[in-house]
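Subject: Sanity check before I submit

Could someone independently write out the structure tokens for this chain? I want to compare against mine line by line before I put it in a report. The sequence has 187 residues.
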Amino acid sequence: MDAHQMDPKWTPLELKCLAASRYASIFACAVGAVGLAGWVIDVTVYRGFSQSFVRINPTGAVCLILCGLSVIFSKPEPRYRWPHVTTYLNLTAAIFAASRLISIFSGFDFGLDLIFFRQTILAAASSFNGRMSVEAAVLFLLFGAAMFCLNSGSRRLWMISEGLLMLCFTITIMSLTDYIYGSNFVV
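---
Independent answer below. Compare away.
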């Protein structure tokens, strides 16, 4: 459905924000798909822009695609929403992220981030550890929780969702600053 055919209660600014979120989700899906394609066809440039940048883990690429799709499938109008699809997409990304965080902090490794391309990741382990980073795992977990709260329909959970998304934005900006300036601010 075209954004201009929606309920007239939407202001032009809200329609622009909806369009921007759709474009950002398509971009996230595209980045995840390119990263995943880099692992499938074994092209290092697709996994990361250069050797100096952090390469995307295949599980991270899948989580990026899942989170992007969850935003695409969550429509603002209740009759056009796919709440079960978005819930399953977010739950899957959150499970991958939570398993990585559990393996980091407890030492018990589920190995979920090695499901895809296990041999290739272990062979490339000399140049990078092949595992999802802590920042990525925290972001996927927070984003999954935020989208779950957003799709619940509760006003209180919607406000929690806004806070979680602002936290995601803050962590993302800190990580990007770290990569750009090499400040090592984010652990």
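---
OP: Matches mine. For the report I'm noting this point. The helical segments are 12-40, 44-47, 58-73, 83-106, 118-123, 134-150, 155-181.
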